[in-house]
Amino acid sequence: MSPGRIMVFLKAPRPGWVKTRIAASLDDDAAAAICRVLMDRTVAALAGFDRVQLRVDPDDAVKDVGRWCRVGWEVCPQGPGDFGARLARGFREAFEAGSAWVVAVGADCPGLEGEDLNQAMSALDHEDLVLGPAEDGGCWLIGMRASHPSVFEGVPWNSSQAFEVGCGRAQALGWKVRTLRRLAAVDTLADWRQWLRTQPI
């Protein structure tokens, strides 16, 4: 397969900045610690992949995530705008740099495995869009083989309608869509505790 790019959209694990719903139940430091665990899990799933780009929010936090950057990877800011605008910018820049395909994931799904990325990349040999649906109605993965900014416009990416609206937008464009397995995101303390219950002692 032609060279592509994997992008990880993440927030710097700063207390008071990340996992605010968890922080409301615990505290800012505990929420940041949980964020770091989730980032560790995501980076572990990406081990062995190259051309990985960590896109961090806020823009001045590039150095905050240096410990998660592996050899051959890069870190850059997400830039301004809502999440849809930041996604569109990342995809556009990747395609402008010559990527044949682009896959974007978040850092909130500890169940993510390397095989999920392999399936997404394989699907992009034939499909226009690949989506990974989250159990809360969002998306944990978005993959495309061409830049099309309108896919990102008006989609509530951080809501429970993201997957449904994203699919509808792609269908309106006449795109072929591949759906991956459903994964759970960790956004609340209940989510975190549920994931912990699945882990071996």
Index terms:
globular; 17% strand; Spore Coat Polysaccharide Biosynthesis Protein SpsA, Chain A; seven-stranded mixed beta sheet; alpha/beta; 201 residues
Model description:
By secondary structure, the chain is of the alpha/beta class. It is built from 6 helices and 7 strands; from the N terminus they run E-H-H-E-E-H-E-H-E-E-H-E-H. The chain has helices at residues 20-25, 28-45, 83-96, 114-123, 162-172, 189-197; strands at residues 5-11, 52-57, 74-77, 102-105, 129-133, 139-144, 177-179. A 7-stranded mixed β-sheet has the order 3-2-1-4-6-5-7, with helices on both faces. Strand 5 (129-133) and strand 6 form a beta hairpin. The longest helix is centred in the first third of the chain and has 18 residues, at 28-45.
- Shape designation: globular
Largest sheet: 7 strands, mixed
Work out the helicity level: 25-40%
Summarize model confidence as the mean pLDDT.
92
| Total discrete domains | 1
Reported CATH architecture: Alpha-Beta Complex
Taking all Cα atoms into account, the compactness measure Rg is 16 Å
Secondary structure: number of strands: 7
Counting H and I runs of at least 4 residues, what is the number of helices? Answer: 6
Uncertain ranges: none
Please write the string of helix (H) and strand (E) elements.
Answer: EHHEEHEHEEHEH
Supply the CATH class: Alpha Beta
